[in-house]
Write a structure and sequence with these properties.
It is elongated and about 125 Å long. It has eight helices and 47 strands. It starts with 7 loop residues before the first helix and ends with a strand. It is mainly β.
Length: about 750
C-alpha cells in the first residue's frame, strides 16, 4: 500500500454519484466509530502491513504519490475511527488540505515516453492498466512522479502480462530510480538505447521474462546501480566486461539464461558485491580463483555451468558467505575441501554432481548455521559421520547416488524436514529400528538402494553364489535371469545358492526383503558362472613348483593358497620328487573360512646332502574334493611361491630382468592378478592408486627374493574406474593402469 493523498481534481472527478456514495459511507463509518470506538476498519484489512503513527503526509508526498483509492480509504478511516477522540491526530486532513491545492503536471517528455512504452509492451492486453492513457499520469498504475512531475518509479505488478519489447524511448525517463518489470513472462527485447541512459537507476528488475539477445554493454554506464536483476530470461552471448565498472553494485543476478564464454575478470572490481548469481548458464573456462577476493559476498551461485578445473581454496576467504551453490560443475576429482569449515556463517551448501570423492568430514556438521546440504550424485564413501547430531539447524540433507554404507543418528535433529539417501550402499541394518525426529516423518527417502554384490566361486563341477547383506530380519530368494519371467529358483531362500555347472550358463541374482523395513527391497548384481570371483580348473604346471636348492642346509618355506572355494573342506598334501635332497612338510587344511589365506609349506634339506644346483619338485595332492579321486591329480591352482631356502641365495631360478606385467583379467570385476618379476633380492613395494593419486591399497611391502610373483587384488569396495598400480624397488619403478568395471 502506498500512503499519500491524491489531488482534488482526481478526488472530485468521479462524478456526483460517486461523491454521494463516499459521503454516505463516511457517515456510516462515523456512526460505527461512535458505537464501536477503535473497532477494525475493513478497508485497511485489505492492505498489507500498514501501521499509521504520527503520519506526515507532506514528507510522504516528497517521496512518492499514493494510489488514489488508498488515499480515499485513509480519509474514510480517519472519519470512521472517531477522529475527535484520537490522542494525537496531527497532520491528518490539515496536511491533506494543503496537498489538495497542489496539482503536479507530469513532464511532457516522460509522459510521451510512457505512451511509447505502453504501445511497445502490449498495453492494451495488460491485466492491470488502471488509468493508463485516460487519467492523469500520476494515477497510471505503477507510475510514481516527483514534485517536478518526472517519473521516478515504474513498477508494474508481477504477472501483468507485458509483451513485446522495451522501447528505446524508455531511456527518456532520466530521473528513473526504480524500474521493476519482473515476472511478466513475455517481454522480448531490452533495448541498449534505453538501458544506457537511465543514469539514476538503482535497482532495475527484469526477472522471469523472455528477454533475448546479448546483455547491453551500456548497462555499465549506470554508475548508481546497486542491484541488477536479469534472472530467468533468454539472454545470450557473454557477460559484458563493462559491468565491472559498476563499483556500487551489491547484487548481480544473471542466473538462468543462456550466457556463454568465461566470467570476465573485470568483475573482480565489484568489491562491494554481496550477491553473485550466475547459475544455469553455459559459462565455460576454468573456475576463477579471484572470486575469493570479493570478501563481502554472502551469496555465490555458479552451479549448472561448464566451468572446469578445481574449486580454488581462495573461496575460504569468503567468511561472510551464507549461500554457496556450485552444483553440477565439471571439476577434476577432488576430496572435500577443508576450507569450507572456515565458512562459519554458511547456511546453504550445494556440491552435487561435482566429482566429489572420499568421505564426508565430521567437521562439516560443526557449522552451526548450516541448514541445507546438497551432495548428491558424487562418489562419497564410508559412513555419514556420527556427529551429524551437532548440526542442530539442519533442515535438508540430500546425498542420493553416492556409495555411503552407513548412516548417522538423526533422532535429535528437531529441525530436519527432508533427508534423501537413495541409491547408496546402505542395507537393512541402517534402517531397522531407527528413531527419527517428528519433523522428518514423510520427508525421508531411502529406497531404492544400489545393487549389492553377488559373489560366485567356481569348482570343477559346481558354482556357489552368495550375498552379504546386513539386517536381522532378512528374507532371500534367488532368481535365474533369462529364464521365463526370471523364475525363482525353487528352495533357494538363503544367502547362498549352489548351481551345477551342467546347467545352462544363466545369470543369477538374489532378491532380499526385510520384515522391519518393508519399503526397501534389495537386489544383488546378476552374475553367471563365467563371472566367478575365482576358479578351480586343472593346471598342472601352475600346481607344480620346482625349487632350486642351495648349500646352507637351513629349512626354507614358500606359501600355498587356493584360488577358489571348492564348496567343502579340502586337504592338500605336498610331496617331493627328490627325497634324497629335501623333505616337505605334511598336509595343509583349507575350508570356507581360510581357503584364500596363504599357508606355509616347509622344505627341509636332508642333512649332509649335496644341495648345489639340486632341485626338488613339489606336487600337490588334493584330498576330500567332492567328485575328484584321491591321488597325484592336480585340481586346484596355487599362488606363485615365495621361496626362501637360505639367507645367501633365495628364491627360484633368478629371472633375467625386472618387469611389471599387465594385470589379468583386464577389465575386471571385482578381482584380478598382478604379476611382476624381481631379478635380485631387494625391497619392493606394490601399491594401487586412484586417478587423484590417493593410495587405495598396498599389496607388497618389504624384502623379496628374486622370483616371479602373482599377487591377487580384490576391488570389491572400490568404485568403477581406472586405477594405477606401481611397483617400486630401490633402483627402479614401473607403472601400469587397470580398469574396474562393475
Amino acid at each position: 500500500m502506498r500512503i499519500a493523498y491524491s489531488p482534488s481534481t482526481r478526488l472530485y472527478a468521479q462524478g456526483p454519484l460517486r461523491c454521494v456514495r463516499r459521503f454516505l459511507r463516511r457517515a456510516l463509518w462515523g456512526l460505527a466509530g461512535a458505537l464501536l470506538g477503535f473497532g477494525a476498519y475493513p478497508v485497511l484489512a485489505q492492505s498489507a502491513d500498514v501501521f499509521v503513527d504520527e503520519p506526515d503526509f507532506m514528507r510522504l508526498r516528497m517521496e512518492r504519490y499514493a494510489n488514489a483509492q488508498d488515499s480515499l480509504d485513509l480519509v474514510d478511516f480517519y472519519h470512521g475511527m472517531g477522529e475527535e477522540d484520537w490522542m494525537d491526530h496531527r497532520g491528518w486532513l490539515e496536511a491533506s488540505e494543503k496537498m489538495a491545492s497542489t496539482v503536479v503536471a507530469a513532464d511532457e517528455a516522460d509522459s510521451l515516453a510512457l505512451v511509447d512504452f505502453y504501445h511497445a509492451a502490449g498495453g492494451k492486453d495488460w491485466r492491470i492498466r488502471t488509468g493508463w492513457l485516460e487519467d492523469p499520469v500520476m494515477d497510471w498504475h505503477g507510475v510514481t512522479l516527483n514534485e517536478e512531475g518526472r517519473v521516478v518509479s515504474l513498477e508494474m505488478n508481477p504477472f501483468n502480462e507485458l509483451t513485446g519489447h522495451l522501447c528505446p524511448q524508455l531511456g527518456r525517463l532520466t530521473e528513473l530510480r526504480n524500474l521493476d518489470l519482473g515476472d511478466n513472462r513475455d517481454l522480448l527485447v531490452l533495448s541498449s538505447a534505453s538501458s544506457g541512459r537511465l543514469v539514476k537507476l538503482k535497482e532495475p528488475v527484469f526477472t522471469a521474462n523472455r528477454l533475448t539477445g546479448p546483455i547491453p554493454s551500456e548497462l555499465g554506464n549506470l554508475a548508481k546501480l546497486e542491484n541488477l536483476n536479469l534472472r530467468f530470461n533468454d539472454f545470450t552471448g557473454s557477460i559484458p566486461a563493462s559491468l565491472g565498472r559498476l563499483t556500487k553494485l551489491k547484487g548481480l543476478w544473471l542466473g538462468h539464461n543462456d550466457l556463454a564464454g568465461s566470467i570476465p575478470s573485470e568483475l573482480r572490481n565489484l568489491v562491494e558485491l554481496e550477491y553473485l548469481s550466475l547459475e544455469v548458464n553455459g559459462l565455460r573456462d576454468v573456475f576463477p580463483a579471484w572470486l575469493g577476493e570479493l570478501s563481502q559476498l554472502k551469496l555465490l551461485s555458479l552451479g549448472e555451468n561448464a566451468l572446469t578445473g578445481s574449486i580454488p581454496s581462495s573461496l575460504g576467504n569468503l567468511t561472510n558467505l551464507e549461500y554457496l551453490g556450485l552444483g553440477h560443475l565439471h571439476f577434476d576429482p577432488y576430496v572435500f575441501p577443508a576450507w569450507i569449515m572456515r565458512l562459519t556463517r554458511l547456511r546453504y551448501l550445494a556440491l552435487w554432481r561435482t566429482n566429489l570423492r572420499g568421505t564426508i568430514p565430521p567437521a562439516l556438521f560443526d557449522l552451526q548455521r548450516l541448514d541445507t546440504i546438497f551432495l548428491s550424485y558424487n562418489d562419497l564413501k564410508g559412513a555419514l559421520p556420527d556427529n551429524i547430531a551437532n548440526a542442530k539447524a539442519l533442515k535438508e540433507l540430500y546425498i542420493r547416488e553416492n556409495n555411503l554404507d552407513s548412516l548417522g543418528d538423526f533422532s535429535g535433529l528437531s529441525a530436519l524436514s527432508a533427508v534423501v539417501v537413495t541409491l547408496n550402499r546402505l542395507t537393512f541394518e541402517d534402517f531397522e529400528d531407527r528413531s527419527l525426529p517428528a519433523s522428518l516423518i514423510g520427508g525421508y527417502e531411502y529406497a531404492p538402494q544400489r545393487r549389492v554384490p553377488t559373489h560366485v566361486a567356481r569348482s570343477a563341477f559346481q558354482a556357489t553364489f552368495s550375498v552379504e547383506v546386513g539386517g536381522t530380519a532378512n528374507k532371500y530368494q534367488w532368481y535365474r535371469e533369462g529364464s521365463v519371467n526370471d523364475e525363482a529358483v525353487p528352495g533357494a531362500t538363503s544367502d547362498t545358492l549352489v548351481a551345477s555347472l551342467s546347467d545352462p550358463p544363466l545369470c543369477y541374482y538374489c532378491k532380499i526383503t526385510n520384515a522391519k523395513v518393508p519399503d526397501l527391497t534389495l537386489y544383488s548384481e546378476c552374475v553367471s558362472v563365467d563371472d566367478a570371483d575365482t576358479q578351480a580348473t586343472p593346471d598342472v604346471e601352475a600346481s607344480t613348483h620346482t625349487l632350486r636348492l642351495q648349500e646352507g642346509g637351513d629349512p626354507g618355506s614358500y606359501m600355498l593358497a587356493l584360488r577358489t572355494d571348492p564348496g567343502g573342506a579340502v586337504t592338500v598334501t605336498p610331496s617331493s620328487s627328490n627325497k634324497a635332497s629335501a623333505t616337505v612338510s605334511g598336509a595343509l587344511s583349507f575350508d570356507s573360512s581360510n581357503w584364500g589365506t596363504p599357508q606355509t609349506v616347509t622344505v627341509t634339506p636332508v642333512d649332509d646332502a649335496n644341495l648345489e644346483d639340486d632341485t626338488v619338485t613339489i606336487t600337490h595332492v588334493v584330498q576330500g574334493y567332492p567328485g575328484v579321486p584321491v591321488g597325484p591329480v592336480v585340481t586346484v591352482t596355487v599362488a606363485d611361491a615365495t621361496i626362501i631356502i637360505s639367507a645367501e641365495e633365495e628364491g627360484q631360478e633368478i629371472p633375467a630382468a625386472f618387469a611389471l606385467e599387465q594385470n589379468y583379467p583386464n577389465p575386471f570385476n571385482p578381482s584380478t592378478t598382478i604379476a611382476f618379476t624381481l631379478n635380485k633380492a631387494q625391497r619392493a613395494t606394490l601399491s594401487v592408486y586412484d586417478l587423484l593419486g590417493q593410495k587405495v591399497q598396498t599389496l607388497v611391502d618389504g624384502m623379496r627374493p628374486a622370483a616371479r610373483y602373482r599377487i591377487p587384488f580384490d576391488a570389491s569396495d572400490l568404485a568403477s574406474g581406472t586405477y594405477l598400480y606401481v611397483l617400486r624397488t630401490e633402483e627402479e619403478i614401473a607403472v601400469k593402469t587397470m580398469l574396474l568395471v562393475k
